[in-house]
Specification:
It is a single chain. The protein is α+β, with helices and mostly antiparallel strands. The protein is 51% helix and 16% strand. The protein has 26 helices and 24 strands. The strands form four sheets. It has an eleven-stranded mixed β-sheet with strand order 16-17-20-21-19-22-18-15-23-14-24. Strands 5, 6, 7, 8, 9, 10 and 11 form a seven-stranded mixed β-sheet that branches. A four-stranded antiparallel β-sheet has the order 4-12-1-13, sandwiched between helices. Helix 9 packs across helix 12 (363-389), helix 14 (409-431) packs parallel to helix 25 and helix 15 (438-466) packs antiparallel against helix 25. The longest helix is centred in the middle third of the chain and has 39 residues, at 311-349. The protein is globular. The two termini are 31 Å apart.
Length: 882
């Protein structure tokens, strides 16, 4: 008996003979391969970068040049997604087409292209969309837009749109006003990049660039080399070159000039850690199945050893099972993963606002994934193979267990690794403040802690078995059986523990970050209150006088109040009046205050901390200020306003009872009219933080100072505005008033990302815990059938077998969850320190006790219930010699 062929034949026949155990192994190995393969297919197909994406931004051009001003540009080969920066920019002198041709050659064709956004009224609503200005009939623009109906723009004012914009209630042939000019829809089609957002394309004259100093061109000049890109960088051009994307220079060589590290070492380290943890998890999950298989082969291996077989030949029999089952599981998972990925693509596409690329199979990743599946099966069979080759031949042939005692040094090494993990994680948390390697230390030490925990598991299982003397029969039997068969119990407990450790660590980090975000949130209004404001300068129209501006603003806000009452009928509507900073014809108004006799540091300007004006007008504090201030501050301010005094907020005590008010009007030509008013009565109110306004002046004082006062905002309060009402309010006000903004205070809102992370963590942990515990439990019950049959023979009821099965699940799940939760605290607490120290107000630590309780208590009990209900209650009696 030499070589691997006999061992593989035995493994194949054993897999067919024990189908239930083989199916468990196939599931445990193929599921990770399936999941990773499907994810790789979806991610690779969804990822549109490099040459694949070039036609979406370049069309048929050789390059695309973007300029914002003159100044040295440093860029990556692919400058999109902030892969460039510019130094010492002169925005008033952008590069010219002649300068671009001087670098690329006189024969270069430059097709102007613009990007921006537009706003148009459709019925009583206002819609926003992105715009692209380019001559779509030019060959260089081919591929930017796929026309499906109608025609391309030919005359002035012609535009084409995509289906999402057409769905707003438009049709081919309609004329709409875009940014103050009439545009006619002549065609509908598919934008090369955007899938679900409204897009409009037309000529550069009809859809100009948002910024006057920005210029872009599609370039037809033949392949644009990296040296030419660098030449254009010197005059201020950011270049996306088709030739450079197809054959990019070394990214590492760009790190120094871009001013940051490429992160390749860290990325590889993280990738290696992920692969190691994934392999470790699969090995631990599949290990019990191979341990049971080795137990079934014990007599066969003993006969081989008694006939002169070597330990290596005995190991090959078990390793052969790993090779056969691993190869089948990897191939099955790979094929199913490709199919699942293909089926998931339409669903995932709905969640993405950009079009995916063509169906893509990343064979390199897929091959590596299948190889990892085979490797995990081999690794899972290594320990059972080693133990099987060291069994007591005489004891096995006599019908007794032939396991050797575990080494005493194993748990000691595990404790040392746990201690090293704690110390390393603490160092990583401390070092991350000044070193990029701190996070890597925490990640590596997390793996070390998990490895140390695995080595400690045998001792923990043994201790629990010794302490189970006073427990009920079923629990006592399960605990002692688990300790007696550590080869199958330890991997299962370790798999559960490793899963829980990872979930607890990520859960603590996520909860701590959430706690930091919640603590740092400062509400601006009472809960359920809404404010309606206009951006600064919207009220000031060209050619108006100040009186006309005030009258127009009052009329506009009367309309807004009517719409608000109609939408939220039970609410209290309050108008907030203030002094505008923007005046007609691009003029500005500045109001500053200083106590009499004070200069410099006591000079307040009209900069706003709330709304659109720093100076408010009222006989009593408006509700936004009343909410932001303390009771003693509001009382003092109300008394001062009632007495005709101005109220000015300050961060330091001031006892002056009068102040100097300086008003300065500046027109669009830069001409200023500065006036000074001395002896103005004032009450200074000291606040701890920045006040939501600079000052509040009574109406009589505003009239005396000759300042305009206009409604600046509406406060909608004394009701809880629903999401539907908020949407109706935004749409109705947006249709009636241009550029209006509606904001509803709902307190701190937990982000959808954090909720998804928590749900995914708990779901993933649940699946892995259930899978690992159920697999280990049913394998243990299969291995212990003679013992359970003996129990039945001596009078044990069918309920006892179900109790033993449920108790074994509790032992595996509960012990693993408790160990994993304890180990998970190490990296979880360590990573929370640097993660939450960014707020500048100390660090935050929040333990998600509900998540941990679900992992440690709920899931083991759920697993026990499933096992107890599905386990067979009756077994045929078999003979057993011991």
């Amino acid at each position: 008996m030499s070589g691997w062929r006999p061992a593989l034949r035995i493994a194949r026949r054993d897999a067919l003979r024990h189908r239930s155990r083989s199916i468990l192994v196939l599931v445990m190995i193929s599921l990770p391969v399936l999941a990773v393969s499907a994810a790789a297919v979806v991610i690779k197909t969804a990822e549109v970068s490099g040459v694949e994406e070039v036609s979406r931004t370049l069309g048929a051009a050789d390059a695309r040049i973007h300029t914002e001003g003159r100044g040295q540009v440093l860029q990556l080969p692919d400058p999109r997604d902030f892969g460039w920066r510019q130094m010492d920019v002169d925005y008033d002198d952008p590069p010219t087409p002649d300068e671009v041709r001087a670098v690329l050659g006189a024969h270069t064709r430059l097709l102007p292209i613009t990007t921006g956004w537009g706003r148009a009224r459709v019925s009583d609503r206002v819609i926003d969309f992105t715009t692209t200005g380019v001559d779509l009939s030019d060959p260089l623009a081919e591929g930017l837009f796929d026309l499906e109906q109608g025609r391309l723009p030919e005359a002035e004012g012609d535009v084409v749109v995509n289906d999402p914009l057409l769905a707003k209630g438009l049709a081919i042939g309609d004329e709409i006003e875009v940014n103050g000019a009439a545009r006619r829809i002549v065609g509908v089609g598919r934008d090369a990049t955007v899938r679900d957002k409204p897009v409009m394309l037309g000529s550069t004259q009809d859809l100009p660039e948002d910024e006057d100093n920005i210029h872009e061109w599609l370039v037809g000049a033949g392949p644009v080399s990296w040296s030419q890109v660098r030449g254009l960088n010197r005059i201020g051009g950011v270049v996306t070159s088709r030739a450079v994307l197809a054959d990019p220079p070394d990214v590492a060589s760009m790190a120094e000039q871009m001013g940051y590290d490429t992160g390749r070492n860290e990325a590889w380290a993280v990738l290696v850690l992920i692969v190691v943890m994934a392999l470790l998890e699969v090995v631990l999950l599949a290990g019990p199945a191979f341990a049971v298989g080795a137990r079934r082969h014990a007599r066969t291996l003993a006969l081989i050893a008694a006939s002169g077989g070597t330990p290596a030949q005995s190991r090959r029999v078990i390793l052969g099972s790993g090779m056969v089952l691993g190869a089948v599981a990897s191939a099955l998972g790979l094929v199913l993963g490709i199919g699942v990925g293909w089926l998931l693509l339409p669903q995932v596409q709905r969640l993405n606002g950009e079009w995916f690329g063509p169906f893509d199979l990343p064979w390199g990743y897929l091959g590596a994934t299948a190889g990892c599946g085979l490797l995990s099966a081999l690794l899972a069979s290594v320990v059972p193979a080693w133990l099987a080759s060291r069994q007591d031949v005489v004891a096995v042939l006599a019908g007794r267990r032939g396991d050797r005692k575990a080494r005493a040094a194993t748990p000691i090494l595990g404790l040392l690794l746990l201690g090293l993990g704690v110390v390393g994680s603490a160092y990583g948390a401390w070092a991350i403040d000044f070193s990029r390697d701190g996070g890597l230390w925490i990640a590596v030490c997390a793996v070390i802690s998990v490895l140390g925990m695995i080595l400690v598991v045998p001792v923990v299982v043994t201790v629990i078995a010794k302490m189970s003397g006073r427990l009920p029969l079923t629990v006592r039997y399960a605990a002692r059986d688990a300790a007696r068969h550590r080869a199958r119990t330890v991997p299962a407990v370790a798999a559960v523990a490793a899963t829980v450790a990872g979930v607890v660590a990520l859960g603590i980090a996520n909860a701590s970050y959430e706690s930091m975000s919640r603590a740092g949130y400062v509400p601006s209004m009472a809960m359920g209150t809404a404010q309606v404001v206009l951006p600064d300068g919207t009220l000031a129209r060209p050619g108006q006088s100040e009186a006309d501006m005030i009258a127009a603003a009052q009329q506009q806000w009367v309309l807004a109040a009517e719409l608000a009452v109609r939408t939220v009928p039970d609410a209290v509507i309050e108008s907030v009046v203030g002094v505008p900073e923007a005046l007609p014809d691009e003029g500005w108004l500045r109001v500053s205050f200083r106590p009499d006799g004070r200069v410099g540091e006591w000079d307040w300007g009209g900069y706003s901390g709330w709304g659109v004006s720093g100076v408010l007008v009222a006989d009593a504090l408006p509700s936004p200020l009343r909410f932001a201030l303390k009771e003693d501050q509001t009382d003092a301010a109300d008394k001062a306003l009632a007495a005709g005094k101005a109220v000015v907020f300050t961060s330091r005590p001031v006892v002056n009872e009068s102040m100097r008010v300086v008003t300065e009007r500046t027109d669009g030509n830069g001409k200023s009219d500065r006036r000074r008013h001395d002896g103005v009565p004032v009450s200074f109110v000291e606040v701890d933080d920045m006040a939501p306004a600079t000052a509040v002046l009574p109406p009589a004082l505003i009239e005396e100072l000759g300042l305009p006062a206009v409604p600046m905002a509406l406060m909608i309060s004394d009701t809880d505005i629903t999401k539907a009402q908020e949407t109706d309010l935004k749409e109705s006000l947006g249709g009636a008033i241009s550029d209006v903004e509606v904001d509803v205070e709902r307190g701190y809102q937990r982000s959808a990302t954090n909720m998804i992370i928590t749900l995914v963590l708990f779901t993933l942990a649940g699946v892995l815990m259930l899978g690992g515990t159920l697999t280990a439990t049913f394998l243990a019950l299969s291995d212990a059938r003679p013992d359970l049959a003996t129990l039945s023979a001596v009078g044990a009821s069918p309920r006892t077998r179900r109790g033993v099965a449920a108790s074994y699940a509790v032992v595996v799940g509960l012990v693993g969850a408790l160990l994993g939760a304890g180990v998970g605290f190490i990296p979880g607490i360590a990573i929370s320190h640097p993660l939450t120290s960014l707020a500048g107000s100390g660090t935050y630590l929040d333990i998600p006790w509900l998540l941990i309780a679900g992992l440690v208590v709920a899931l083991p009990l759920l697993t026990a219930a499933i096992v107890g209900l599905t386990a067979r209650s009756r077994l045929p009696l078999v003979a057993r010699s011991d």
